[in-house]
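thought: fold this chain, then report.
action: predict
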Amino acid sequence: MVRLAKPRDVEPFTWEPYGRRLLFTAIGVCFGTGLPAVWSGIPWWTVPVVAVPVMVCAAWSMRPRPPRTAFGALLR
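observation:
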């Protein structure tokens, strides 16, 4: 979506390292919640109920932040 809205300004939303981290986090969260759910007989819908909030928290904690500069401090 960012590439469609701003095709020239995609730097903080590129694959390295943000996309790769989120992909591996999503795989780990899905396996970490899905396998125990299957093994213990918990209903399938508990996996997204647990995985979505965990992924939102992971994305929020790994979000790209612009570097702090003297100019950025002036804008605040």
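thought: worth noting. DSSP finds four helices and no strands in the chain.
final: tokens above.
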